[in-house]
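Lecture 7, part 2: worked example. A protein chain together with 1,3-dihydroxyacetonephosphate.
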Amino acid sequence: MPLVKMTELLGWAENNNCAVGAFSVGNMEMIIGAVKAAEEMNTPIILQIAEKRMKQSPMHLMAPMMVSAAKNAKVPVAVHLDHGLTMDCIKTALEYGFTSVMLDGSLLPFEENIELTKKVRAEADRYGATVEGELGVVGGNEGDTAVHKIQCTDPAKALEFCEKTGVDCLAVAIGNAHGNYPVLPELRFDVLEDIYKRVYTPLVLHGGTGITDEMFRRAISLGIRKINIATASFDALAKNAKEYTETTDKPDYFTLSPCMAEGVYENVKKHIAIFLNK
Ligand code: 13P
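Predicted complex, written out as structure tokens:
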């Protein structure tokens, strides 16, 4: 089964009234676990990594593994750069064969976000790759210590942003945040509905960890076609590793490795089942 463009999977999600899961990975075990879950569910997925995560998981090691995993998977898999911040990283990801890139210009003034996203659009077009943009500020943090304050996407500006940049999908801020939520989030479905009514571009929900099944379903009914899950997979891997090392006197890598992959597999499988929206 091929490595596919992310637009293909967004179209699949649109046609099936569901969302495609975009699962963040940071090592080989996470890739193995996520792909195994997708194959077992016979469902396409997106494997993604954020630019800031490359401090721990370098691009030159992760990119070949992710692309190869996609090419060898039994289901369609897109490989995506999550939260691209620099043109350098975006260009490198495209050279490695990522089929999709995100430019996170959410902290920039509106016009600057548009201008930079347009540049990424032009670069991605040279490779036939998909582009995700972001408008509004998703809370929490994505791989650093800075915690961003939530700023909901302005529905009136969303259409202008999509038309001027030509993005294939738009990440929205509706009260969602990266990382574990301290309390159950109150998502602004009124804002999402307003964006959905104005914009024809598929919408993306970041900060999937900790969002309830019911909220996911409601978000899908209002145009969310890609949902990002990171923290829940990292936590599932760490939990399994902890349990294994605490319950054996002689921990060995060859038992630990599949045990870590299993944690991610369980988490990805659980989320795929919800995102299928059946
Ligand atoms: P979580 O870490 O909250 O699952 O967010 C994932 C995400 O949105 C990655 O961009």
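The domain at 6-275 is CATH 3.20.20.70 (TIM Barrel). DSSP finds ten helices and eight strands in the chain. Keep this in mind for problem set question 3.
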